[in-house]
């Protein structure tokens, strides 16, 4: 399988492309402006130079034409004058020499009249044979016949000639032949101007400047009229080998003997000649080649600098990603399935996994905070907190318990107007009353065991003279909120108002006592402890509110309040100074209330203490015996509450263990089964097991999956379905996160032979 690029390579490639694309565009522009434009300029310059050469040669040819015209019209050079005598011939030679001096390119001037035996030259008079054998030879022509040829010749022509005067050396000449007279059908002689080809090519070379190549002058038939080589291995025949008839004037590159040459030529409309320069390309475009080298060097340098720069930048940009990647590896080791992922993908997966874990952790912390907060409130209701613990708890849980007016409300969560409340309604009421804010104060809720009642600790911001009216207002607002959610009014009992938070447990016991009268008030009623107290006032008997407070403190297992209330009742009986029979009736009623509660609580292991109480001999002895019995009753209530929690725990755990393999098993189903709210049940499971419902179920599923991996041959997919998971890939990732290895690796490592 082809391995993809790593993230570091991708980052470098990205920066390289970001650098390279503009660089290539700018480099192309620079190259075009610096090299291509220079090459075009050099080519245009060379063509202009050749055109200048053409114009100069055309001008020279015009001078030749003018010269021949003057010669043909010179009265001193007519046939009559030159043939008079020897002196006249000498004067004719001098006259020709004078005409020769007008043009430095003229090698000689020949003058011939038809029918004459001799011809005239700047060198003197000579015969045609002497001319052909010793002085000049004309290619492809018999000079005697050519000179005598008197065919109609209207214009001038050019022919090639060779200078024979230089012994052992041959010099190319260009013969310019014109009839005498010009532009006439009848002519009687010819004038031949012999141009020095080398002088002509030298002038062309001077016009072209520093030319290291060859210069060719071609006639209308593209035959070489003049040729000059500047020391290069370029021969006259080379041009004939490479020349093509369809070429047009301009510059082109040609190859000859595996070498590149630049050829430039222009045509002359006046003479029909072609002027050609041929030189090696490196000489013709030397400046371009030098510029190319400079540009290539600069571009190569910039490319190297760019590559190094992109490497440095990409490394600096990758460094924080690598640090994140290494930190992610420390958080979550990389599995074999994740090796194909790049670092960002792995970091993203790690962040998502960590985010999910953090959300779960936050959920657990919030749940734990609610549990701790509820425990604090329950301890506050039970009066188990010292002043220091009370202040610390209020600060830690951010509770507003700073005023001077506190009381307790108890809401019946068990019975509604149409029967038992459902778990959903309990959940809704709990959500409303957990933190109940109203105009003038705030209330904090805590659920009783088995979620039968919800206790609200109410703190008012200000003191009120009519405390009952204010408490009634709070209860009415509470009822309205409950009705708006579940469309039912619940029974509420209200304790008395106290000025300190540490006395809240008294109001709680009073509200608990008031709740005992819910049968009398009916469902949805409001029961104030004050009303019970006022409605049962009897100067003959001890206060009924003290009796209710005493019995409720025993039911709550609050030995402190029970002992204190017992002392108040006994002191109240002793202070009334009534007759002995009445006193015995009061003591019997008090003792009977205790025995009745013991029977209700099914306390049967205090027979000796009951006998001792029945046989008391003094009031102080009765108080001591009842105090001991109160402590036993409170201890029994606490043990029973713990036993109830243990029983609920056992039932909940048993049901979870029997149904955790079901895919649709949820906390809501469990809450409906036990007729508890989901929030209460979730906190209860967390309190009893130390884990949330989700964590506990996942632990059971994980242990069962590990057992099946080791003890069975089921596939991973089958095991995932058996333990209640959906999605094999997600389960494998979860398994690897918890165990550090995949299910397959776990099976190989722990399976039995």
From TrEMBL:
InterPro entries: CdaR_GGDEF, Homeodomain-like_sf, HTH_AraC
Pfam families linked: GGDEF_2, HTH_18
Annotated TM spans: 12-32, 293-313
SUPFAM superfamilies tied to this protein: Homeodomain-like (SSF46689)
Keyword Transcription regulation: yes
Domain HTH araC/xylS-type: 650-749
Keywords tagged on the record: DNA-binding, Membrane, Transcription, Transcription regulation, Transmembrane, Transmembrane helix
Keyword Transcription regulation: yes
PANTHER family: ARAC-FAMILY TRANSCRIPTIONAL REGULATOR, HTH-TYPE TRANSCRIPTIONAL REGULATOR EXSA
Protein name: AraC family transcriptional regulator
Biological source species: Paenibacillus hodogayensis
Lineage: Bacteria, Bacillati, Bacillota, Bacilli, Bacillales
């Amino acid at each position: 399988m082809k391995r993809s690029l790593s993230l570091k390579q991708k980052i470098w490639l990205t920066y390289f492309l970001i650098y390279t694309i503009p660089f290539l565009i700018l480099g192309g522009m620079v190259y075009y402006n610096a090299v291509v434009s220079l090459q075009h300029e050099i080519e245009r310059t060379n063509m202009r130079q050749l055109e200048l050469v053409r114009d100069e040669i055309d001008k020279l040819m015009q001078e030749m034409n003018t010269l021949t015209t003057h010669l043909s019209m010179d009265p001193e050079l007519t046939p009559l004058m030159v043939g008079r005598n020897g002196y006249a011939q000498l004067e004719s030679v001098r006259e020709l020499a004078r005409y020769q001096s007008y043009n430095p390119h003229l090698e000689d001037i020949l003058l011939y009249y038809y029918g004459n035996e001799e011809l005239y030259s700047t060198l003197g008079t000579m015969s045609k044979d002497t001319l052909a054998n010793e002085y000049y030879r004309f290619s492809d022509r018999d000079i005697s016949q050519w000179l005598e040829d008197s065919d109609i010749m209207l214009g001038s022509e050019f022919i090639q000639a060779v200078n024979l005067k230089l012994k052992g050396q041959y010099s190319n000449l260009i013969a310019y032949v014109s009839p005498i007279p010009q532009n006439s059908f009848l002519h009687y002689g010819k004038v031949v101007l012999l141009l020095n080809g080398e002088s002509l090519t030298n002038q062309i070379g001077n016009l072209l400047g520093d030319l290291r190549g060859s210069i060719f002058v071609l006639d209308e038939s593209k035959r070489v009229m003049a040729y000059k080589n500047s020391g290069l291995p370029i021969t006259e025949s080379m041009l004939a080998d490479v020349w093509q008839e369809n070429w047009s004037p301009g510059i082109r590159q040609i190859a000859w003997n595996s070498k590149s040459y630049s050829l430039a030529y222009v045509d002359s409309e006046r003479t029909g000649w072609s002027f050609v320069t041929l030189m090696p390309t490196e000489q013709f475009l030397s400046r371009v080649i030098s510029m190319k080298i400079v540009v290539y060097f600069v571009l190569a340098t910039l490319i190297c600098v760019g590559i190094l720069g992109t490497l440095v930048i990409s490394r600096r940009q990758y460094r924080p990603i690598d640090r994140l990647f290494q930190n992610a590896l420390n958080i979550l080791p990389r599995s074999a399935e994740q090796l194909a992922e790049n670092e960002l993908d792995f970091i993203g997966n790690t962040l998502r996994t960590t985010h999910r874990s953090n959300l779960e952790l936050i959920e657990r912390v919030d749940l734990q905070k609610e549990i701790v907060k509820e425990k604090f409130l329950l301890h506050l209701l039970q009066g188990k907190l010292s002043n220091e613990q009370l202040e610390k708890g209020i600060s830690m849980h951010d509770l507003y318990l700073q005023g001077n007016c506190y009381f307790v409300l108890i809401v019946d969560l068990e019975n509604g107007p149409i029967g038992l409340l459902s778990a959903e309604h309990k959940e809704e009421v709990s959500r409303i009353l957990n933190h109940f804010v109203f105009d003038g104060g705030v209330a904090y809720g805590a659920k009783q065991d088995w979620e039968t009642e919800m206790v609200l600790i109410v703190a008012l911001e200000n003191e009120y003279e009519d405390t009952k009216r204010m408490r009634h207002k709070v209860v009415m607002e509470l009822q309205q909120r409950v009705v708006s959610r579940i469309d039912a009014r619940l029974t509420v009992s209200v304790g008395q108002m106290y000025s300190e938070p540490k006395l809240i447990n008294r109001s709680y016991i009073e509200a608990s006592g008031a709740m005992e009268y819910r049968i009398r008030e009916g469902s949805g009623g409001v029961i104030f402890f004050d009303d019970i107290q006022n409605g049962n006032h009897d100067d003959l008997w001890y206060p009924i509110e003290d009796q209710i407070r005493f019995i409720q403190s025993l039911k709550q297992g609050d030995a402190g309040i029970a002992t204190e209330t017992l002392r108040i009742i006994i002191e109240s009986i002793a202070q009334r100074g009534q007759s002995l029979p009445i006193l015995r009736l009061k003591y019997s009623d008090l003792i009977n209330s205790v025995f009745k509660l013991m029977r209700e609580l099914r306390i049967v292991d205090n027979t000796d203490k009951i006998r001792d109480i029945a046989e008391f001999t003094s009031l102080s002895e009765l108080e001591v015996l009842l105090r001991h019995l109160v402590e036993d009753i409170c201890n029994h209530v606490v043990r029973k509450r713990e036993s109830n929690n243990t029983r609920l725990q056992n039932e909940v755990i048993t049901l979870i263990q029997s149904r955790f393999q079901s895919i649709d098993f949820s906390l809501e189903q469990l809450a409906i089964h036990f007729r508890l709210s989901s929030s209460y049940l979730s906190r209860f499971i967390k309190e009893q097991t130390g884990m949330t419902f989700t964590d506990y179920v996942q632990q059971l599923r994980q242990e069962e999956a590990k057992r099946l991996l080791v003890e069975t041959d089921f596939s991973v997919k089958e095991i995932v379905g058996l333990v209640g998971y959906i999605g094999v890939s997600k389960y494998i990732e979860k398994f690897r996160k918890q165990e550090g290895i995949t299910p397959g690796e776990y099976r190989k490592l722990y399976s039995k032979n």
